[in-house]
Amino acid sequence: MNTIVPESGLQQQVQHFGTVNRHLRVLVDQIAEGALIVERLPVAGQGPQIVFVNRGVCRLTGWRPEELLGQPLAAVFDPARVAEFLMLLPRVAQVGKAAVTRAQLVTAAGETRPCRWTVSAVRDPDDRLLNFIITVAEEGGGDAAPLRAEEPGGDFLHQMARLENLEVIASGIAHDFRNQLTAVMLNISNAGAQPHGAEAQRTFLERASGSARQAKELADQLMEFARGGTPVAGLADLGNLLSECASLTLSGSNCRHQLEIGPGLWPARIDTTRIKQVIHNLLINASQAMPDGGHIQASARNVVLDAGEVPGLPPGAYVALSVHDRGTGIPAEVLPDIFKRNFTTKQKGNGLGLASSWHIVRGHHGWITVHSTPGMGTEFTVYLPACPAETIEAPPPPMYGDPPLAGGFGRVLIVDDQQVVRAAVRASVEALGYEADEAASGEEAVDRYRRRFHEERPFQLVLMDLTLPGGHSGDDALREILRLDPSARVIASSGAIESGAEADLMRLGYVGALPKPFDLQKLSRTLAGAMAAELPRA
Questions:
Q1: Where are the domains of the chain?
Q2: pLDDT given for residue 6 in this prediction
Q3: Which class would CATH give 31-151?
């Protein structure tokens, strides 16, 4: 409902808003950080124009306000990174989240200062984009960091490209996963159909077990890819990485692939999760360039580059990873744009894959080249600095044959909301020599543990699922059990336990971790290890 305001009242409102505006201006000028407002329409190649600055910007740059108004953002922002900054603005406007980068601020004297820049979109009540607000805070130094969004998961381009590719990889894994489950089900059925003869049953069950392990590996790979991982640099074998990524990414696709790993491949110090993302991106692009199927060649080799041999790289030792398809190719006129964010010639996808790959590789002080002939195919080559003088420790030799099971005794409480899991684990625990009881929720687990504890027949071990229905998670139940009995031995069990998470679980009070799925060997060793573990909290 519209309200008609008398003229005198309208004048009072205008005066009121003018006073508020002056107060806001004084407030903005008091903050230590620099604040700019820039127009939503950029100046070609230079970024949007500055329409407001506070005193913080003037203090940091040495410019007067009137000297900056109407200037492009490149007047104060690192000119070498303006194009990268521009790629981020449409996404900020779309999702409405702040984004940050660390880049050099340029002063009136031509000097540079490392600063942290935060940009947010401003919209009117009708949700129309008005402009962007940027704040600038001086930092103590360091190299420029890649642009990223302030959201869980880290680097924006990496995160979005990973999500774009997740559907492609998941569909391929689902194909192979169903094949493995088919083999499991048929072999178990065949084992049960044998009228007699333990040897025939054993053969079928061994086949089922092998297929189940294959399915577990597929699930582990998908979980690792979906999580993204925390960036950690370490020495890695890029040949093994390329082989692993090719098997995962092209699983279930109609493309064949051939690997060529050069002799004596040098290791490289990389963030494995990020470089996997780059390889996934390139392999997916290659397979999508051949929708009717085809042949993909992937290779890894040592190269020693001379000065100027690859633009943007100093001379030295590198490992070159190449992915070559025989697809449609890329027209010459669009080749310069393929690493720009949101550029894509595909009907599906948002064009983040190559942009993300470019930023990841540059963050590793490497480079990506591309050669393409329309109608003949495309070859991408990633150059990463190598470490020829370093070696990777060889993994321990594989063990042949199953080691003996670790039996035990004592009472074990099995906590899991899935009855089929509880039944299978209980049978296994009892086969190992333990007594077993079950609980389907965190509340039931605490009640059973409390009753046995007061009856002076406590459980020696608790196998606790971490994701439980109702009000009690596994961690909640753990805390209540430890309050009742500080010497309780609780093992965390879940399909969501990440590699390397055992130390964090120990800090919470668990005495061991048993990621799902697990077999009888793993269960026996985990139970025996938990029984023997020291309890520093006791």
A1: 31-151, 161-385, 411-532
A2: 42
A3: alpha beta
